[in-house]
Amino acid sequence: MRFTTEQRLDDGVLEREFALGEIPGILWTPASASAPVPLTLLGHPPLGLRKMYPRLVARARRAAADGFAAAAIELPGSGDRPRWAAAEQARADLRRALEADEPVSDEIVDSLILPLVGRAVPETQAALDALLSLPEIGGPVGYSGGVISVGIRLAVVEPRIVAAGLFAGSFVPRAMFEEARQVTIPLHVLLQWDDEGNDRQAALDLFDAFGSTEKTLHANMGGHTGVPQFAGEDAAGFFARHLR
Amino acid sequence: MRFTTEQRLDDGVLEREFALGEIPGILWTPASASAPVPLTLLGHPPLGLRKMYPRLVARARRAAADGFAAAAIELPGSGDRPRWAAAEQARADLRRALEADEPVSDEIVDSLILPLVGRAVPETQAALDALLSLPEIGGPVGYSGGVISVGIRLAVVEPRIVAAGLFAGSFVPRAMFEEARQVTIPLHVLLQWDDEGNDRQAALDLFDAFGSTEKTLHANMGGHTGVPQFAGEDAAGFFARHLR
Question: Known InterPro entries for this protein (chains A, B) (predicted)?
């Protein structure tokens, strides 16, 4: 891991861009910390780190205020990273189905999500190796937001992640419901009740499927991007309980 | 309203029992307050104030820590208040249905809940008149917990209640779903995902029915009495946002 930029934000948070091989990322660490700090991995939709930056930095500042570092890496096929043909095709198929007001088939969902999960999860684990080798970061690690299927797979395969805050706001392949049963870490699941791009019943079924004995569903009014401010406060409380 | 006892709890909260005509109640006020404080009405199941006291005083202490007064009154037909024959009959019918593992009919639910709502709501409003006339209590008023149908009716008919935290953990007459559509105040709804005495789908339908533009569902694992500690913290955050 190679740091490429470094700046102090107005609240003293240290923001550093890094490159992990070909993967760009950003690390935020609290203004002052006397001991190695816990880490939250900030998931995000595949729209590019640059586009997501305002929302990511807000979440990172909130994490830093609780004494946690936060990091995000560019998803495969997003931002300046090379596209791959199958993913572009799946996105085009999805757009066509949505514009024609047709149901989104299992095939489209699978080809959209499963390859993304298959690539993003080992990359996130590699980033975790690098981040946890820094003297200022100690763990434990939480995963927050982003493509929920990425979060599910990470929760199953990555034992260093001790708690996950998931956003039930993207298509979920049927195969992921089976993986959800294998999740046992504490979960905090956000659902927007009238999410235009998300099936409410599927989200409730997914919540039901998770194997965790501590899991909480927070459903709020509004569409996909209408998550209320106070929902962020509740999620921060969840991570404070599990990472401190 | 006539105060009958007065004591300081170890955290400085002032606890006073009162009688409002034939109705007993308890008022808790914060240790020190320089101005009239907001009020939370503590709803509770019809098991008697004395039996509910440990849980009520814990909720009252939490409210006082946020600078709010809290009050609870004995429900009609509970504690030392006179039973009425129809309610006793409805409870016996419910017990019989549950013991025989039969579905609880609409008739049983209606005869159990609707008369209770019809009596408890005006009594709560009378208590509100008396409590808000005290110089130390200013409002606004929140309603929290208890029989959810009582909370629904209060939210519809009582304009002094500005926010309600409801527990989707009791039978709801069909007629209350229509009333739920008329609720417009901010709502914080708790659901125990595996509540043994409560139908999950009915609770989700009820949440969907509420007319409020700000409504949040917090679903947690476990049975009726297994509401986790952190759920109380989130509910306290809801009231802090709306009563301060």
Answer: AB_hydrolase_fold
